[in-house]
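Appendix B, Record 12. Input sequence as logged:
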Amino acid sequence: MNTKLLKSVIQNRKDDQHIPPIAGTLFAVFLVVAIAGAIFGEGRYADGLLGAWVLFWLMIGTYFLFAIKVASQWEKVIVLRLGKFKGLKGPGLFWVTPIIDTAVMWIDHRVAVTSFSAEKTLTKDTVPVDVDAVLFWVVWDAEKAALEVTDYNSAIAWAAQTALREIIGQMTLADILVGRAKMDAELQKIIDERTTPWGVTVQSVEIRDVVIPQVLEDAMSRQAQAERERQARVILGESEQQIAASFAEASQAYINNPTALHLRAMNMLFEGLKEKGALVIVPSSAVDSMNLGGLSGMVSMAQNNLPKEK
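Logged structural output:
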């Protein structure tokens, strides 16, 4: 088991040597009574009676020391009598019969978290990936958790890891990267089916991270960059088509109206000459088509009359 799984199976579990404070206190009280009886009873009782007195209170104190158990609010305790299942105890104070009864396991009923991973696992399209996930589960039947499986913590961790590897092998890399919600649902279903006989139910599974090889990551980055560049070129081409269509539509307004075309040409020249020290270059074809020949002298005069820069 790897380090992550070792950390994930740690859970508060006590054994039969657990002694609650109340049992220790009672034992101390009876021990004091026995000592006091031995001190103050010396000379009053025969040695046999005094020894029996001390032994009696020591036995009572020892009984309470091992008979009294206390379970926390979130715990259930598995009690065996001579090796056979007797019942569940707790939460709170409960009694067991020393030597005959054994409190073998304290089971936590709170939601537990298990971190698991699948390293260098091949996807359906033979891409090695590292996947980290978190499992949230809870024990709903303490009897089954104690009697049906040796170590339900380790069993849950291993079941989650094998299920994760199984799911990865059935999915392509693209499906894993974009379909985490679906992957979470499939994992929860598979793991819950395996753990239900153990008295454990899975509340949710969450994929934390998916790591792919660096070479493949670079290739995917270049692919994404090329795709964005292709989309940019397509958008630019569509823009050129829209502009050409707009110009074609505008040209229809000037076909049979030379005056409007002439005014448009004058407006273009005016816009070009607004800037200080501007130089306007007009193609010869535009001079003929837009009737700019008569305007060339006006342009030259306007340029000569521009204020000189100091």
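Residues 214-254 form the longest helix (41 residues).
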